[in-house]
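## Example record

The block below lists the input lines for one assembly entry, exactly as stored, with component labels intact.
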Amino acid sequence: MDPYPQAPPGAARPGGRTARTRAQVLDAVASLLLEGGFDALTVDAVAARSGVHRTTVYRRWRDTGALLADSFDAAREQPWQPPDTGSLLGDLTEINRQIVAALTEHPSITGALITASFRSPAAARALRDFWEDRFATAAVVVERAAPGADPRTVLIAACAPVFYELALLRSPAAGDLAERYARVGAAAAG
Amino acid sequence: MDPYPQAPPGAARPGGRTARTRAQVLDAVASLLLEGGFDALTVDAVAARSGVHRTTVYRRWRDTGALLADSFDAAREQPWQPPDTGSLLGDLTEINRQIVAALTEHPSITGALITASFRSPAAARALRDFWEDRFATAAVVVERAAPGADPRTVLIAACAPVFYELALLRSPAAGDLAERYARVGAAAAG
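Predicted structure tokens for the full assembly:
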């Protein structure tokens, strides 16, 4: 469920000049965001950091919101397979572990993108699209274990407390966080 | 669970010049935050809006972070009684309804304070203290209905999905949001 499960957006993208340009630009977005937060993210800074001509960046992305939105879109395009551990509790725990890892790594691009979503409506919409897409992909985890349950409700029951604890309360990541709230999700499946 | 259950911070505070000054200053913080967000919140703007001399504001609050932290502290000092509807599901639903109301009113001071917590570490710490205090007060709801359950886990199971949906995913507030996730909390109580 990490927006960057393996590599920065576009890093492993197959060739083509357009794809390479996008990868360079989105890598620059990620590194500027991690270094200086939303305020460091300007189209000019992205152009300078990426080595892509600023008229190209302006033409294709136009503004900071579009750069952030495309970062989420690129993350969404990364292949992600829901876990298949043999039990609903095991699968929800593994999904939560991925979220904990994404939110507690230093620096955390996931955390930086969540923060940016409070500055940019375009980023907020793209964040939502990213998560709804991941929940749709992960629905199979619930459907095969608890056919009568609503997959999205179960997934949010398990995942939302992890986001709430780490991204909103900024609680220290207790060792059992992933499993504790995976149990909540499993209980919600009935 | 609304940071401002009845009135802006300090509004109903009993007399005394110090208390009145604080009420005026924190009212100004709230209105500036609602009008212009974090960027509009400067000590000078708060002094001008509140009519309190800027040297007084600087001496007592020092900076934006301290003003935000004191806004959360004032909210925490507001009396709040956990609901007592006769059932755990009823109580959790009522708590969630209060959170939904606080996050969906226009303008939402709760939403504005959450957003500010992504700009100010002092605000983030104060937000956490506010919520941990509310969870401690609300623990009785779980303790009387499910003595074996961990109150904080049950309360977060019910409330975190509401925050996640409305504050992070920015989902539209579906009619049954409060009750849907109250059921999750009740199921987590075992």
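Chain A has a mean pLDDT of 92. The radius of gyration of chain A is 18 Å.
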